Amino acid sequence: MPEIILNGHKVAKGKAEGEALVSREPISFLGGVNPATGAIVEKNHMLEGSKITGKILIFPLEKGSAAGSFILYEMVRNKTAPKGIINWRADPVITVGAIIGNIPMVDRLDGDPIELIKTGDHVELDADKGIVRVRSKD
Amino acid sequence: MHLTKEENEMLEGKYGYPVQKSMEILVGLGECYDAEKMIPVASSHTGGSAVMNGKAGCLFIKEMAEKSGVFLAFMDTNPSGIDPFLWREIGIPEETNQEQMAMSNDLVKMGAFLGNTCTPYLIGNVPVLGQHVSWTESSAIIFANSVLGARTNREADPVPIAAALTGRVPAYGYHLDQNRLAELRILVKAELKDLHDYGVLGYFTGKVAKDKVPALVSLPPSVSWDALAFFGAATATSGSVSLYHMIGITPEAPTEEAAFGTRRIKDFPTFEFGEKELRETEESLSKATTKEVDIVILGCPHASIGEMKALAQLLSGKRLHSGVEFWILTTEMVRSYAERMGYVHSIEKAGARVLSGTCPINMPPGLLKKQGHRTVATNSAKMAYYIIGVQGLLPYYGSTQRCIDAAISSVWR
Questions:
Q1: Domain match, B208 and B301 both
Q2: Is A17 touching B (CB cutoff 8 A)?
Q3: Residues B164 and B192 in one domain
């Protein structure tokens, strides 16, 4: 089973391991995700209806309102949050959200995570060291 | 990012969880913007409404308070979700009052002053030229940056909380000299007669400036603080503008050369604001479809004592239409002076209410529509813009006198 290792930059500390959920499109936490169920609810989003709960969530960047930070925190309290997050480049909203929610997160990897990681792959995320290990599901 | 020894100890947890978590937030934010270091803040201004902060925001504040967080910088609050005196009368649910009390108490536990206003600069939170602060509330941010010459980014909660718990913010954006220079000119040709006209100019300015720093040319040096508050609130509504310069008026712009720095002014675009732009911008904000007005809302941003005096004079001896609710929003501090001066008496005698410490944007969403209101008249561009989404009312936007006339006849003219 091939393994890919990517190196990047810690956004929020901690370690997480789980199944990847990959979105090519940006995600907005305020309005785009239901914090009670963990489902993506944005109309016509490529992941509309998918649950991000317990996943290593990989998407390009956050979009939308600054109030999104608290939504991630609320999801952690509701136990509907993703286990870990990988972005191309973290914006302030997702950064603050991941930090206050204690969700391990990295960005600025040395390979494009959206190309290299597929939904369903097994991902080990060590945010403290900025390392992502990916085992393909195939 | 370079951290001092003390800042590193904060990050490692030497000063407890709230300080550690706050420093993590600030370092994370600093790294997003490639900040090189932290800088001390003179004050913070944070969201004061339990409704706006939502369940999660309230939980975060509660956690920080329970874990013995203490604000190192002076901290005050934006409007709350209730009026402390009139909340029952205006139909705020008991549950909202409870949630508000709980969140306010948690903030007080950490040392906050419950100013509960979008005009902290009117009640003593007044940073001076060059001081760094961490404020939320777009109308207060733009006032601090532009009129006072203090320095803040447009902070989203919980950043002002983290800043007050550590006494620091990362040095990026408007904290740095090079990001405070003007990037476009607005040449003002229209005659600005009252406060409301400054709001119209602001709304126009925000639209053309978007997220850039505008310089306003040809305004009278005698422009009032109230006019500056109206102008800034409107500018920050139609654009994400956090800093403007008024040449010959605001502290970082004694001349155009000072506002633009060493760059060539003619490399930047100029937009004219004449009578046509004034009229068109004003009309664009009125979205109401029926002539009947059922509520009038003034005091956005919160009315100053000068505005309270003027409103008392305008309403003195008048009788407002029985079918029209009339709210003047202000701070508790200004309300108490206005009471002593007899202004509140004149206003209430006409049939209007003076609300303090809150506003409809911070109250439970949809409350006014639920109470049967449909059409609002206001002299505030900011209120006209936000009340549609938050309270579901359609606005008429015009001068203070026009709003008062509508309250007397119940018809917008």
A1: no
A2: no
A3: no
What ipTM does the predicted assembly reach? 0.80
CB contact under 8 Å between B157 and A69, yes or no, is yes
Examine the fold and report which residue of B283, B313, B330 is the final residue of a domain before the chain moves on.
Answer: B283
CB contacts under 8 A, B 303-322 vs A, are: none
pLDDT tens for B98-121 read 999 999 999 999 999 999 999 999
On whether both B189 and B148 belong to a single domain, the answer is no
What's the mean pLDDT in A24-43?
89
Q: What is the pTM of this model?
A: 0.92
Contact between chains at A99 and B157 (C-beta distance less than 8 A) = no
In three-state form (DSSP H/G/I as H, E/B as E, the rest C), the secondary structure along chain B is CCCCHHHHHHHHCCCCHHHHHHHHHHHHHHHHCCCCCEEECCEEEECCCHHHHHHHHHHHHHHHHHCCCCCCCEEEECCECCCCCCCCCCCCCHHHHHHHHHHHHHHHHCCCECCCCCCHHHCCCCCCCCCECEECCHHHHHHHHHHHCCECCCCCCCHHHHHHHHCEEECCHHHCHHHCCCCEEEEECCCCCCHHHHHHHHHHHHHHHCCCCEEEECCCCCCCHHHHHHHHHHHHHHCCCCCCEECCCCCCCCCHHHHHCCCCHHHCCEEEECHHHHHHHHHHHCCCCCCECCEEEEEEEEECHHHHHHHHHHHCCCCCCCCCEEEEEECHHHHHHHHHCCHHHHHHHCCCEEEECECCCCCCCCHHHHCCCCEEEECCHHHHHHHHHHHCCEEEECCHHHHHHHHHHCECC
Tell me which of 1.10.150.20, 3.40.190.10, 3.90.1310.10, 3.50.30.10 is the CATH number of domain A3-135: 3.50.30.10
Mutate to test the interface with A, among B25, B55, B61 (most CBs of A within 10 A): B25
Query: Taking CB atoms and an 8 Å cut-off, how many pairs form between chains A and B?
Result: 59
Residue-number span of the structural domain to which B218 is assigned: 181-283
Q: Tens digit of pLDDT for each residue in B336-387?
A: 999 999 999 999 999 999 999 999 999 999 999 999 999 999 999 999 999 9
What pLDDT digit, counting tens, does each position of B374-393 carry?
A: 999 999 999 999 999 899 99
Task: Kindly list the domain boundaries of chain A, sorted by start residue.
Answer: 3-135
